[in-house]
Amino acid sequence: MPKVMNRRRPAAASRTSAPPEDRFFRHIVRSMRNGVLALHRDGRLALMNNEAYRIFGLTPRAEDVGRHFSEVLKDPSVLRVVSSAFELSHLPNRAELRLKELNRVIGYTLSQVKDDAGTAIGAVMFFKDLTQVEQLEERERLRDRLASLGEMAAGIAHELKNPLAGIEVMAGLLRRQVSSADAQSLLADILSEAKLANAIVVEMLEFVRPVRLQVERTRLADVIQQSVTMAESKASRGDVNVTLDVQATLPDIEGDQHQLCQVFTNLMANAFEALDGKGRITITAGTSAIQEDPALAGLTQTPAVVVDVADNGPGVPPELTDRIFNPFFTTKPQGSGLGLAIVRKIVDAHDGRIDVSSVAGSGTRFRVTLPVSSGVGWFK
Ligand SMILES: Nc1ncnc2c1ncn2[C@@H]1O[C@H](COP(=O)(O)OP(=O)(O)O)[C@@H](O)[C@H]1O
Ligand SMILES: [Mg+2]
Fold first, then answer.
1. How many angstroms separate the CA atoms of 266 and 201, rounded?
2. Average pLDDT for runs of 10 along the chain of length 380
3. Buried b / exposed e along 76-91 (16+ C-beta atoms within 10 A)
4. Does pTM surpass 0.70?
5. Ligand 1 atom 1: residue of nearest CA
6. Distance (Å, rounded) from C-alpha 190 to C-alpha 210?
7. For 263-291, b where at least 16 C-beta lie within 10 A, e where not — what string?
8. 200 and 285 share a domain?
9. 248 is a domain residue
10. What pLDDT, on a 0 to 100 scale, did the predictor assign at position 263?
11. Other CB atoms closer than 10 Å to residue 43's CB: what's the count?
12. What residues are in contact with ligand 1 under a 6 Å CB criterion?
């Protein structure tokens, strides 16, 4: 029972005998979905509801009422705001506060509690946990930033393509005109560097371009076969042994053949590069079901095709597995770091999944799970 009221109505001091309207007010405050924190003029805690305890990460304790607020609240930024309640002439109405230690953001309003004579006898803070709102806004900002970065990157990549093609053509012409072996070898270097730069520009354009799927019935066995050939043109295969094990009854899926081909090409090119000319790649394709939400077992089972691309190369160190799908993450001196970012983007566009599992020293397995039909019975 706040002390403020005791002065006017001493009879209502005990909780059990509080008049019904007082109890009702107490219930309002307790049930509020906002945090409420009220102090007496001398800094003693008058009230703190459950939501306030939750937001501050504290456990509700009856004995907190009546103690000085600094003994109850620990976060320095909250202490600062609450202490200012009696000092500021203009109290904030809708301010935000970051609780560093709790990694939370709250939006709050601070008011003074005045008695009938207009004297400030306390202060009250109403607040709401804005952490999720803040995270959503942050994601939105990031998306906007990425979209404009993407546009810029696409523009630059496009502009670079022409001069790079020019360098290639002219170096080729010059190669036919000079006879010295030194000059020939320099020109060969220029050509191969220009080709590499061009390949990066092409990948960059692929990465920033929004995915638009041309969905058709796709036989994955054909797509995978084609990808092996494409990967050989991207990375050198050497003596690497490639085994294909496609389930005979594998259903056709609804997907974009060209883009799915790129998924497996990139995965295989990476495997070739990891194996460095010797080793084994095993591609296995079978059926499965994707379960969207375990709580809805049975309802959300979606027929899916699972393709594993496994190599017996050096593996991905555990501390890097979270980062390999990030754009521009590469451990290769000549790498663009866009291969897996493109893979993820295409798999996402198909409502599929990609997982990696790797054991240092014994290999890496990328598992691509794709729904057999896109959008049908597929809960998002
Ligand atoms: N099969 C693999 N074995 C080991 N490491 C791999 C494999 N595939 C990808 N990686 C790691 O993931 C990184 C990112 O791959 P990617 O996005 O294709 O970019 P890039 O091939 O240009 O480096 C590679 O640099 C490599 O460190
Ligand atoms: Mg790659």
1. 16
2. 45 58 86 92 93 92 92 86 81 83 88 91 92 79 77 84 91 91 93 89 82 91 96 93 93 95 97 96 89 51 90 93 90 91 92 90 94 57
3. eebeebbeebeeeeeb
4. no
5. 271
6. 32
7. bbbbbbbbbbbbbeeebebbbbbeeeebe
8. no
9. yes
10. 97
11. 17
12. 266, 270-271, 274, 311, 313, 316, 324, 329-332, 335-341, 364
Type of residue at 42: D
Q: Which atom of ligand 1 is found nearest the CA of 329?
A: 14
Ligand positioned closest to the Cα atom of 366: 1
Q: Listing from the earlier edge strand, what are the strands of the sheet with 363-371?
A: 241-246, 280-291, 301-311, 363-371, 353-359
CATH label of the domain that carries residue 114 = 3.30.450.20
Residues 365 and 242 in one domain: yes
Q: How far is the CA of 234 from the centre of ligand 1 (A)?
A: 14
Q: How many CB atoms lie within 10 A of CB 311?
A: 27
- Whether 77 maps to a domain, the answer reads yes
Yes or no: say if 4 and 90 are a contact pair by the CB < 8 Å rule. no
Cα-to-centroid distance, 232 and ligand 2 (Å): 13
Residue in 347, 342, 352, 339 with CA at minimum distance from that of residue 378: 352
Q: Final residue of a domain: which of 160, 189, 209?
A: 209
Is 263 among the domain residues? yes
What is residue 16's predicted lDDT score, i.e. its pLDDT? 55
* CA 208–ligand 1 middle distance (angstroms): 19
Q: How far, in Å, are 2, 36, 42, 44, 112 from residue 119 at the CA level?
A: 16, 21, 13, 17, 9
Q: How many domains are contained in the chain?
A: 3
Please check whether residue 299 lies inside any domain of the structure: yes
**Same-domain pairing of 244 and 352:** yes
Judgement on whether residues 173 and 248 belong to the same structural domain of the protein? no
Cα 335 to ligand 1 centre (Å): 8
- Tell me which residue range forms the domain holding 269: 216-380
Provide the 8-state DSSP code for 84.
G
| CATH code for the domain in which residue 136 is found | 1.10.287
Pocket test for ligand 1, best of 275, 340, 344 (most atoms within 8 A of CB): 340
